[in-house]
Design brief:
- There is one protein chain.
- With 178 residues, the chain is α+β, with helices and mostly antiparallel strands.
- It has one domain: NADH Oxidase.
- The protein is built from 5 helices and 4 strands.
- It has a 4-stranded antiparallel beta sheet.
- Helix 2 packs across helix 4.
- 28% of the residues are buried.
- It binds flavin mononucleotide.
- The site of flavin mononucleotide has 12 residues, from loops.
- The site of flavin mononucleotide (FMN) has 12 residues, from loops.
């Protein structure tokens, strides 16, 4: 497979995974995923992200209770809490690192799902995070329980989302040009 085909395949098949097998993700694999986060791009290369890996089941459960939309954290093999410190663009820097880790994890057969609506103070207390850190998200990871569902994306067509040169001009105009 060509490099671009591998990346395309990963992006096309990766869906939000909320149901995980009980199987543990090995420690060396978790470290490889973090290494990918470390290598991400950031504004002025400030690398403001801070990661806390959580494997302890009781702690995963406690974290799942800090958001109304993340019950599945409790079923994860592990989670990565993503914080930023002194970031000018915290959400952008944080999301870049996390997205790279999500896709890399997917290349290893590990699913995940972005989660929002956290009670930041409660998460920080549970993880003993320094006061200066800002919580971006906590993402659960694990081997998908139902691989058959994977790959069926419901997405808007490009014609509703993209324009060429100016709003209203369809991107199909691109293919009419050489
Ligand atoms: C910024 C963002 C916030 C999200 N918040 C949640 C969340 O709080 N809980 C949840 O279960 N899924 C959450 N998701 C996952 C989305 O619901 C999911 O990516 C979307 O529905 C597409 O799902 P699919 O890739 O399986 O088609 C979030 C995704 C993003 C990108």
């Amino acid at each position: 497979m060509e490099r671009h085909e591998i990346v395309e395949e990963l992006i096309k098949t990766n869906l939000a995974v909320r149901d995980f097998k009980e199987e543990d993700v090995p420690s060396d694999v978790i470290l490889r995923i973090l290494e990918v986060g470390r290598l991400a791009h950031s504004s002025k290369n400030t690398q403001p992200w801070r990661f806390v890996v959580v494997r302890d089941k009781a702690k995963l459960y406690e974290i799942s209770r800090t958001t109304p939309t993340g019950a599945h954290i409790a079923r994860a093999s592990f989670a990565i809490a993503l914080f930023t410190e002194n970031a000018k663009l915290p959400e952008i820097d944080g999301a870049r690192a996390m997205e790279d880790m999500i896709l890399y994890a997917w290349s290893l057969g590990i699913g995940s799902c972005w989660i929002t609506n956290f009670d930041e103070d409660r998460v920080k207390k549970l993880l003993k995070a320094p006061a200066s850190w800002k919580l971006i998200t906590v993402i659960p990871f694990g081997y998908p329980r139902n691989p058959k569902r994977l790959g069926r994306k419901r997405r808007k067509p490009l014609s509703e989302l993209a324009y060429y040169e100016e709003y209203g001009r369809p991107v199909t105009a691109l293919s009419e040009e050489r």
